[in-house]
Amino acid sequence: xxxxxxxxxxxxxxxxxxxxxxxxxxxxxxxxxxxxxxxxxxxxxxxxxxxxxxxxxxxxxxxxxxxxxxx
Length: 71
Known about the structure:
Helix content is 0%, strand content 38%. It is mostly beta strands. Strand 1 (7-13) and strand 2 (16-29) form a beta hairpin.
């Protein structure tokens, strides 16, 4: 997929509630992603314009710190 084909939706409760729609401008896939086992199945998606973080249906998440026990 091209990033411009990806439409991101935020919602407070599935498909109902507050929503913001954004198109992706870039997708950063994990460099060690394995599509046959889905190992490292994670990506970051950049959107434009930025999401409105004062919207009650949108919140930040914290990513865990890497450790020697990650797998």
